[in-house]
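Quick one:
INPUT:
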């Protein structure tokens, strides 16, 4: 299996996982199970709109990679899209690295985010930046 096909299949599986996340958040909220603390992070019903917006944006990106994008890219607009996405992922990865290096605390609505989240964010966003830039460099022959 080539790398492009493997990445598309991973994006399809991840789309299902994110959809499951949205469903479980609504289920927990409807069942009155919120607030819920999981891995040091407390999820409240007030966070529901932010979770849905983030997961929705992630689903759109994963669906595009999994079903619509043909790699390597051939049009300048696809290349530009990948360069912009790579730049955003690079900035996010660097922000996580700065947080780790300087031990910066981050809180959202009274919720203190643990540092281990930045390790995952640094690695994941860094990989996505690398992949986006490498896909943008490839030319379809």
């Amino acid at each position: 299996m080539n790398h492009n096909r493997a990445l598309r299949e991973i994006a399809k599986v991840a789309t299902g996982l994110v959809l499951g996340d949205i469903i479980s958040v609504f289920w927990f909220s409807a069942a009155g199970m919120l607030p819920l603390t999981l891995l040091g992070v407390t999820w409240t019903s007030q966070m529901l709109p932010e979770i849905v917006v983030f997961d929705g944006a992630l689903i759109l990106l994963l669906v595009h990679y999994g079903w619509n994008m043909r790699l390597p890219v051939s049009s300048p607009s696809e290349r530009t899209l990948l360069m912009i996405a790579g730049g955003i992922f690079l900035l996010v990865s660097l922000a996580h690295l700065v947080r780790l290096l300087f031990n910066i605390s981050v809180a959202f609505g009274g919720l203190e985010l643990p540092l281990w989240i930045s390790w995952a964010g640094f690695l994941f966003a860094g990989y996505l930046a690398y992949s986006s830039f490498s896909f943008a460099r490839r030319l379809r022959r």
